[in-house]
Amino acid sequence: MALLEIRDVVKTFGDFTAVNHVSLAVEAGEFFTLLGPSGCGKTTLLRMLAGFEQPDSGEILLDGKNMAGVPPEKRPVHTVFQSYALFPHMTVAQNIAFPLKMAGVASAEIPKRVDEVLEDVRLQQFARRYPHELSGGQRQRVAIARALVNRPRLLLLDEPLSALDAKLREQMQIELINLQKEVGITFVYVTHDQGEALALSHRIAVMSQGQVEQLDAPETIYSYPKSRFVADFIGQCNLLDATITEVQPGRMKVEIEGVGTAEALPVAGAQVGGKGTLTLRPEKIKLGATLPQGNADEVHFKGRVHDCLYLGDVTIYIVELDNGTLVETMLPNSGSGKAKFFDDNDLVELAWRFDAGHFVLA
Amino acid sequence: MKSKSLAKWLISGPPLLYLLLFFAIPSLIMAFAAFRFPGDYGGLMPLTTANPDTGATELLINFGNWRDFLTLENFQRFFDEPIYFELFVKSFWYAGLTTVICIVLAYPLAWLIARSPRKTRDLLVLLVILPFWSNFLIRVYAWMIILGPQSYFSRALNSVLAVFGVEPVSLLFSQFAVIVGLVYVHLPFMVLPLYANLEKHDMALLDAAQDLGANAWQRFWKVTWPLSLPGVWAGTALVFIPALGMFAIPDLLGGTNSMMIGNLIKQQYLDSRDWPFGSVLSIMLTFTVLLLAALAAWAGSRGKDKR
Amino acid sequence: MKKVSSWVWAAAILVYAFLYLPLAIVVVFSFNDSALNAEWVGFTFKWYQMLLHDDVMLEAALHTLLIGLVTCVVSTVLGTLAGFAMYKWRLRLLPALVLTPIAIPEILMGVSLLIFFVMLNMTLGLVSITLSHIAFCIGFVAIVVRSRLQGMDESLVEAARDLGASPVTAFRAVTLPLIMPGIIAGALMAFTLSIDDFVISFFTAGVGSNTLPLEIYSRVKVPMKLNPEVNAISSLLMLLTLSLILIVSKVAPSALRSE
Fold first, then answer.
1. Taking a C-beta distance cutoff of 8 angstroms, is the pair A34, A45 a contact?
2. CB-based contacts of B74: which residues, under 8 Å, 6+ apart?
3. Per its UniProt record, what Gene3D superfamilies does this chain match (chain A) (predicted)?
4. Domain closes at, from A169, A199, A229
5. CATH number at residue A217
6. Boundaries of domain holding A17
7. Which end of chain B, N or C, is less surrounded by CB atoms within 10 Å?
8. Does residue A212 share a domain with residue A262?
9. pLDDT tens digits, chain C, 259 residues: what are they?
10. Are A163 and A138 in the same domain?
C-alpha cells in the first residue's frame, strides 16, 4: 500500500478550479516532486496535504487513513515553507524544540533530540542564534531540521530553494538528496524549476491547470514527454508541427510542416493522418559544415545559421532551414581552437537519429 | 464551524459593545437632539416626565402631539442666517491654508528623511513624532509666549517694521496666530504619510528623468510630485479634517474675529446651552468631514491605481 | 544613493527648528526668575517649588494619571481584541465603529458624550472622562495592532499549526509574542492620548474633576495672568513623556518604529 494516496481530489476557489480531479500515489521513502508553472495547483495540493485547505471532493489517505477533517496539528506531516517561517522571536534551538514540545516529548529529552538534528544539518554552533542572524542557506537548514526533528511520516517542501542564489541552490540540492537518503523520510517537493525537479526527484508529477499532465521518472519525462506542454515546460525543446504519413512496426514517417519527411519512433495510437508535434531536444541534433550522408537511421537537413548565443561552455545555434523554420541546436565549445564553430549566415547541415525525435499526438 | 463563530463573537464582542454604547448610541442621540426643542433652562426640552403621584417615568410625546416636541426649526435657522454658512467657509479657509502650508513645510523634511540612510532615518522620524507626544495645550501655550506682545519675537518684528514706518502689529489673538498654531500642531501628520510615500519611490526614476533631459524642477513636478500624491492626500485628510473641527487653538490664540465652527459648537453647548442648535452644527460638521474623508480616500486610491 | 541637495537640508533644519524652538522656550522660561514670559531675567527653581505646594495642580495631575492608567489598560485590551478581529475576519460594523472616532474631529465625540451622560443623569467627573477616553483610544490601539498583524508573515502561524500546535497554542506561542511590540506601542499611545486629551475632557468633565490639560487651559485662558508655573508643569510633562518613550525604546525598540 502506498504511503500517501490522493484520490480524485478537487479544490475550487470561487470560479477558479485550482486542483481538478487529481489522483496519485506516493510510496514510502520516495522523493516525489510536484512540478508546474505558478497557478498550476501544486501549492494548493500541498496545502491540502498539510491540512491548511480541505478538498471540495475526493480523498487524501495517509497510511490508509482518511485525512478529511484532521487539522494540521494532528497530521504526521510537516512542511518546509517557502519563506521558511522560522519564528523570529525564538532561537534556532527553540525553533527546533517547538514541534517536540507540541508533541509532548519529555523536556529532559528535548535538548538531546535538538542536538542530534542540528548535527544532521551541520548547525551545532548556531543553536543559540536567532533566525535573523543566519544566512539564507542556514535558515533553510534550520527550517528543514525543525520539520524533521520529530520524524514525520511525510515532509512537504514548498519551493524551499527559491529564495537562494544559484550557487547555493545547487549545493542545497545535493544536501537535500543526501539528507533524504539518510533519514529515509518521504519527501513531497513542490517547485516550478524543472532543473531542480529533474535533479532531485525519484518521480515527478508535471501539473498544468489543476491536472497532472504526466507522472514518471525524470528521465522518462525528459526524453518521452507525453504532451506538448510537458515537452515545452521541461528543458529546451524544438516543437515541430507534423503529420503521420506512414506507420510501420518499429518506425514511422512524419511530414514536418514545410520542412520535409522525417522518420520517428512510432507512438501508441499512431495512425496515418494523425497530427501532432515532433519534439526534439537541441542537444540531440548533430551540427556540422558537412555531415556524412546515407545513414538510414538518421534524419538529415540543410540550413543556415540564423543566430548564435555564445554561453561559454556551449554555443546555441538557431538554424534556419531552407523553408524558414527555425531549429535550435547546441554544440559544446570543446575541440574548437576558436571560441565557437560557426557564425551567423554560415551554411550548415543538421542530422539526428530517428529515435531522438519523440512524436506527441495532438 | 460553530466554535469559530463563537470565537469571533468572544473576540469582537467586547470592543463592539463598548463602542456601540459609548460612541454609536451617543452619536445617534446627538443626531436626534437636532430635531428637538431646547429646554427652558438650556439643554433639551424633556420628552418624559416623572408622575408626581407614583414617581414613575411617563412619556410626554405621542402620535398626536409629536409636533410640539420635534421640529426642523434648528436646521431652518442654520440655513436662514448666512453668518453660520460664512463661519463654515471661514473654517474651510483656515483648514485649507493650514494644509497647504503643512505640505510646503513637510515636503523637504519628508524628502530628507526618505533619502537618509536607514539608521538616521528612524531617528529623524522620531524627531518629527516627539513634539507630537508632548501635550497639545503646551504646544499651543508655547506660541502664546512667542507671539505675546512683550516677547523677543514680537519686539524684534515690530522694530523691523518701524524701520519701514509700519505701525506695530499685535501677533497674538489674530488670524495669523491661529494659522501658526494650526500648522504647528498638525505638521507631523503631514510629514509621516508623505515620508511613507516618498520612501517607496524608486530613485532610478529620477535618474531616468535626468538622463532623458529633465532639470531638477521638471524632475520634481513631472515625476516626484505626481507619484507622491497618494501621500499628499493621506496627509491632507489627517491635517484638514482635525483642523476643521478645532476649537482650542482659535480659543487660545485667536481674537474675536477668528472663531471657527468648533468654537460655535462649544458656545452652543456650554455657553448659550442651545443643545438642539449645537447638534445641528455638529451634524453639519460630521457630514462635511465624512464627505471629505470619502473624497480623500477616493483620491488616494485613484493615485494608487496609477502606479 | 543620490545626495540630498543642500537647500533641502537647510529647509528641513528650519522645519525642525520650527518644531522644537517653541517647546524649548517653554522649558527655558520655566527657569526664568520673572512672572512674565517675555525676557530672561535670571535662573530660578521657584516655579517648581510653587508647583509642589499647588494642591489644585497636584490634584489635577493625580486625576490625569489615574484616568490615563485606567484608559491605557482597558483600551489596550479592547483595542487588541478589535485589531485582531479586524485582521482575522471580514467585519462591517466593528471597523466602522473603531475607525470613525479617529476620523472625525474630537469635538463631535465630546459633545455627543456630554448629551449622553447628561441624559443618563450621570454626574460628570472622573468616571465619565475615563469612559470617554477609552472610547476614542480603542481605535488607535486597534489600528496599531492590526498593522502589526498584517506585517506578520502568515506562514508563521501555519508553521506552528503544522508542527503540532492547536489554534490557541499557536496564538499564545507565536502570534502574541510577535505582536507584543504593537500592543506596547498601542498602550503607550493610549496612555499619552489620554493624559494629553483636552477637548473630550473639556466636555465630559464636571466640577472638581479637573485634569492637567483642563487646569492648564483655565490658567492660560486668562492672558494677563500668564503663570510660569504652567511652564514648570509643562516641562515636567514633557520630561515624563520623553522618559516613557525612552523606556519603551529600550524595552521594545520595534514598538516605536514606523508608527
1. yes
2. B34, B35, B276, B277, B279, B280
3. 2.40.50.100, P-loop containing nucleotide triphosphate hydrolases (3.40.50.300)
4. A229
5. 3.40.50.300
6. 4-229
7. N
8. no
9. 456 678 888 888 888 988 898 888 888 888 877 777 677 777 888 888 888 888 888 888 899 999 999 999 999 999 999 999 888 888 888 888 888 888 788 888 998 999 899 888 888 888 999 999 999 899 999 988 888 888 888 889 999 999 989 888 998 999 999 888 888 888 888 888 888 888 899 988 887 788 888 888 888 887 655 577 888 888 888 888 888 878 877 766 665 554 3
10. yes
Distance CA A191, CA B197 (A): 35
Boundary (domain end) residue, out of A229, A252, A268: A229
Domains, chain B, ranges and CATH? 77-306 (1.10.3720.10)
pTM for the full predicted model: 0.79
Show which residues on chain A lie within 8 Å of chain C, measured between beta carbons: 50-52, 71-73, 77-79, 81-83, 85-89, 98-99, 102-103, 146-147, 150
Interchain touch C–A (≥3 Cβ pairs closer than 8 Å): yes
CATH number, span C50-255: 1.10.3720.10
Q: How far is the alpha carbon of A352 from chain C, nearest alpha carbon, in Å? A: 49
Residues of C in contact with B285 (CB under 8 A): 105, 107-108
Could you give the ipTM of this predicted complex?
0.86
On whether the CB atoms of residues A355 and A254 are closer than 8 A, the answer is no
Question: How many angstroms separate the CA of residue C183 from the nearest CA in chain A?
Answer: 16
Cell for B244? Answer: 476643521
The structural domains of chain C, with segments of one domain joined by +, span 50-255
Of C160, C164, C173, the CB nearest to A103: C164
**B residues 54-93 closer than 8 Å to C (CB):** none
Same domain, A263 and A324: yes
Total domains, chain A: 2
Residues of A in Cβ contact (< 8 Å) with C153: 83, 85
Subunit partners of chain C (3 or more CB pairs within 8 A): A, B
Would an 8 Å CB–CB cutoff place C29 in contact with chain B? yes
Hey, is B42 helix, strand or coil?
strand
**Nearest CA-CA distance, residue A52 and chain C, Å:** 8
Grid cell listed for B194: 508623505
Residue B273, CA atoms < 13 Å, CB-side half-sphere: 8
Are A64 and A206 members of one domain?
yes
- The verdict on a CB contact (< 8 Å) between A52 and C160 is no
Instruction: Look up the CATH number of the domain holding residue A292.
Output: 2.40.50.100
CA-nearest of A48, A51, A36, A52 to A8 is A48
